């Protein structure tokens, strides 16, 4: 027969109350991890953040695509980075390849337009000046002389399935847009010069929000 003494009932009620209180005051359980996208899935993604495989050694258009821009996620900055992402398995390898791309310069033209039905509006873009602390507005021709280190928000990248376990990533911005409004956009990126030193340097186009400054 079930024992329902007052002491046992009080203890059970207290345990339930403490469990409820802990659930109310504690942090929400972490969401389940997102499985990384395979190459085909990542290439089909048209919502920021997004990546595409690109070659850096020959001049020509490496990106000509439309994409959807959501609002920045929690802990993301408001700037939209348009650039290059590389990945390696060791810190030494990622530093060496990132340094090579910076030395090579990678001059390009970058154009970004906001789409509204049949209307297209050019979006002002910026680049990082050689002094790193200064920002320079790109001219109407979209010219940017080099790719510069510029971090992106890893939380949104992880939620999109664009981070692979066991790899170290580095991002280099060709240009970026400051606080663009959510909506539909069109980007075109054209590399301007041969860079034979980058022939065997696998890379991706990356369009993503930057990390929020602390």
Question: Which range does the strand content fall in?
Answer: 35-45%
Main beta sheet: strand number and arrangement?
Answer: 5 strands, antiparallel
Largest sheet: spatial strand order? 1-12-3-10-9
Helix % is: 10-25%
Number of strands: 12
Low-confidence parts = 1-28
Distance between the termini: 61 Å
Walk me through what this model shows.
With 214 residues, the protein is an alpha+beta fold. Helix content is 21%, strand content 37%. The chain contains four helices and twelve strands; from the N terminus they run ααβββαββββββαβββ. The strands form three sheets. Strands 1-12-3-10-9 form a five-stranded antiparallel β-sheet. Strands 2, 4, 5, 8 and 11 form a five-stranded antiparallel β-sheet that branches. Strand 4 and strand 5 form a beta hairpin. The radius of gyration is 23 Å and the shape is globular. The termini are far apart. The N terminus is likely disordered.
């Amino acid at each position: 027969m079930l024992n329902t003494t007052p002491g046992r009932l009080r203890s059970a009620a207290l345990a339930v109350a403490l469990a409820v209180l802990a659930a109310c005051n504690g942090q929400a359980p972490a969401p389940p991890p997102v499985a990384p996208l395979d190459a085909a899935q990542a290439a089909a993604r048209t919502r920021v953040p997004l990546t595409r495989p690109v070659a850096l050694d020959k001049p020509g258009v490496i990106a000509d695509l439309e994409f959807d821009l959501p609002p920045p996620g929690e802990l993301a900055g408001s700037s939209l980075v348009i650039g290059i992402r590389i990945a390696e398995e060791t810190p030494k390898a990622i530093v060496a390849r990132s340094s090579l791309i910076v030395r090579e310069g990678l001059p390009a033209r970058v154009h970004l337009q906001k789409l509204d039905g049949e209307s297209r509006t050019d979006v002002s873009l910026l680049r990082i000046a050689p002094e790193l602390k200064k920002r320079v507005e790109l001219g109407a021709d979209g010219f940017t002389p080099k790719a510069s280190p510029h971090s992106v928000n890893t939380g949104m990248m992880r939620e999109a399935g664009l981070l692979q376990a066991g790899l170290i990533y580095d991002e280099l911005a060709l240009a970026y847009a400051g606080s663009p409004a959510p909506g539909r956009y069109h980007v075109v990126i054209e590399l301007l010069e041969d860079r034979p030193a980058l022939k065997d340097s696998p890379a991706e186009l990356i369009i993503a929000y930057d990390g929020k400054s602390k």
